[in-house]
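Predict both folds.
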Amino acid sequence: METAKRIAAAREAVLSVVPFFEEHFSKVESLWKRDDTRVTEADLAISKRIHRFITEAFPQDDFCSEEELPPPGVPARELRARFAWVLDPIDGTNNFARGLPQCAVSLALLENGFPVYGALYDHAQKTLLEGGKTVPLSRGGVPAETASPEFDRHSIVSFHFPLKRAQLAELEPFTTVNAVRCQGSAALNLAYNAFGAIDGSVDYNTKVWDIAAAVALLEAAGREIAFRGAEAFPLREVSSEMPRLSWFAGTPSFMRRARGLGLI
């Protein structure tokens, strides 16, 4: 019951900011943060709106937004509650600011440090993508069928650029054989993976708020994510200086292929 209440609230919270998101798409000025990522007034406004919505409903829960992190030099904020919320108010801010459609509002519900539900408003499809540990995948409220075809030369992979030369070299078995897509949004790369449009995804440079909601979608789809180096979950603390995450995700056969190549 406690989880179900929060899932309903997450869905409502994300949908409540959609009109604002759409109204400001491609119409806001942006700045560059200290970590060289873009931020707009829309990011900040959506963060505040969802933060207020969630904390008024569940004041005992922890809440983390990319745009409300402890500044550099300040100790990390510990997450001690059973439930925690992880928000990326706009994943794909570069796209949002420039008028490219691949961008999303991404909200995850975590229980004991692990994602159990994710809600993403996908601007490109103008719909809500959701799912989790006990919640079947759905698109706009319509259940989505999940499948995990064998990974072969017809499969599609997604990467996030730029990539270093060494990274490009180790990914050559994919880039020279498979079609490659880049959404400009880690959340959507993984979400489309969960829904079957993409078979395998790789990223060397994300933060936990970029992917928390989509990780729940992957679990709902029966797909896997494996981290190289730092693990994202269980999430116990947040700060603006958290390590960047490197991971491979996709169908079981894609993951077997990556492991066979010694990549994970």
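Second protein follows, with its predicted structure tokens after the sequence.
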Amino acid sequence: MMEITGTTKLLCLLGDPVAHSKSPMMHNTAARILNLDYAYLAYRITEQQLPLAVDALKLFGARGWNLTMPLKTAMTSLVDELSPAAELANSVNTVVNENGRLIGHTTDGIGFIRSAAAEGIDPVGKELVLLGAGGAASAICVQAALDGVKAIHMFKRKNASWDATEQFISRVARKSGCDITLEDINDQSALRLRLQNAIMLVNATNVGMAPDCNASPIDASLLYPELVVSDIIYNPAETRLMHEAAQIGCKTFNGMYMLLYQGAASFELWTGKEMPIEEIRKKFF
């Protein structure tokens, strides 16, 4: 068992909800295997509470923390420095506290690309359809574009953040050379057209997450057997979207391995040590 001492360094997860998260088990087990003096906890924090939480963590001398929905974009304005990928994505899922100076990183995109590779899927040179434009979606878009995906077709609701999202994809397209489009998620004709040429559909919204497990971001009639369907949600393990896709004959995978690989990247940023991925995978995934 890991012992908490007077020198134990704090790591944690902030978000809402967080009770379902595997991150505490994953990081605490990794620290124990490597004999590192860290403890990782989860705190339910709203966007309104985030500035106070960050001040408290700095006061406590926390080594770092992860951000999950809905805090990844809000965290960008609360750090002292952003990594190039985090700045491009306007999203932070990992903060490293360097003696009071907060450095914001995003490891979500790395986690997603590595999870797709673990499923035998290589999107380089191909097209993908991405649902959502929040922190995780932005990070996936940035990493996929930088890694050489041919085209990314992002679909979201046409709401107040539409113009900002257009500016975001324009920046990423200029930086990466990737063809990136933004379209209304309610435009069924556009969705159908883009999906016909895509290798993969990625749901990076929270539609279908527990407790609202009966919801799906798109109609199942748009899917076809050759399409790979990925949902970054992992609670439930099989969302309605994944269930309907599997019934049609699609290959599917959820966000569990994305969690593993993005967590491994965060762990290394905090500790300077590689997470023992195979041991963590066998124990929790």
